[in-house]
Structures are given as C-alpha cells and as structure tokens.
Fold this protein.
Amino acid sequence: MIGRREGGALRRTAPAAGKMTKNPPWMLPSAIAGCFVIVLMSLTGCGPKTKISFEWKDPDVQPTPFAKVVAIAMSKDNIVRRVAEKEFVNRLPKQTEGVAGYTLISDSDRGDVDKVRAILADAQVDGVAVFRLVGADTQLQYNRGTIYYNFWGYYGWAWPMVSSPGYMMTEQVIRVESLVYSVASGKLLWSGMSETTNPSSARTVVDDVVRAVVRRMKAMGYVK
C-alpha cells in the first residue's frame, strides 16, 4: 500500500495491478480440467472491478499474431460457456478471426482430447484462449480510508462513525484463470489470473475478464 499526504491526512492508494511472476504459481497439472461456472450474486459495496493480478508468459517465445483463435470456456453450463466464447470473439480486433468453441466442438466431443485436437486442426486454428473459474471468495474488508496524524482531525472524523455503519464491508472476489496456447506446438504461451470484485452478474464477470485478456493479448502481439 502506498501513501501520499493531502493536507493533514495520508491517503492510501492501491499498488499497480498486473504483477509479473516468473512462473504461474496457481497452475496445477489439471489446469484446464475444471468447470467455468459463475453464480449470479446480490452484492454490496462499490461497482465491479477486474484486474489481472498475476501473469506469466513464455520468455523463449517471440509473439506473432494469430490468424485464427478459438475461445474455449471450461464450463458444464452451456449458457455461460456460449456467452463467454462469443464475447471473446466479439472483442477481438477485426484483423484477427475468432471462433467460439461451441460452434466447432459439440457437447459430446468436449471431453475427448483427440477429437478436439482433430477438430481444431481441421478448422486451421492456430491459437486457443481458455477460460476457467478458479474460485469465488467473500472477504470482509476494513474500510478506513484516511489516516489522520492530528488528533483533532481524527476525532472529528471518527466520532460520527461510532454510531454509523460502514467500518467493515463485504466484498465478493471472482478469480478466473485465462490461458493462451499455440495449437501447432501445444505450448502454453501466456497465462493470467484475473480478479473481479463485486460483480453484479455472471455477464459482468465474463465481459470484464474477456476485455482484460484481449487487451493483454493485443499488447503482447498475439492479436493485431
């Protein structure tokens, strides 16, 4: 947490998002074997915010733009899967052809690795973007906001708060793992862990995560 002084108070500002790690510490051997399921929630607090809190990329690969990218949301929920995959396609730049996974891979074929590999090869896809829900946590946050170094300034701020609610607030944090693979080599090129705070719906999470991932792909050079 970084502080800066304004008048008699010290304001707290959050550190920059998007810390780069050498390796993706959250990844497991079964990284793409889970379910991408998001539950609609009624939440309190401020509006939704999405950031990529950790990311990793292959340092030995020089990114080149994909010609055709397929989006695959790891979910047993057909609606969530279709919305996520279609939103990814809609967010891609016009120069990059995007394909929603559900238009290529049937529900019965999704669990068959060999069939999926053959389908993507036949479709001449060279890149894959995968999305998977990692967790949904409820956190209790202390929302103080301002530190006063002058007693009377602090007293004037704190006393009215004694009889008012708001010392603590509940935040919902949705964590989604996103991965970008090369179809030809099967290698992982980039992975990121996003955190969405206080989303109002599943659609909000999908929109924000997809937007953040496409932005990173464009910045790295995987899409034009």
In short: The domain at 14-140+169-220 is CATH 3.40.50 (Rossmann fold). The two ends are 35 Å apart (CA to CA). Confidence is low (pLDDT under 50) at residues 1-47. Strands lie at 2-6, 9-13, 19-20, 49-57, 68-73, 97-100, 127-142, 146-148, 168-182, 188-197.
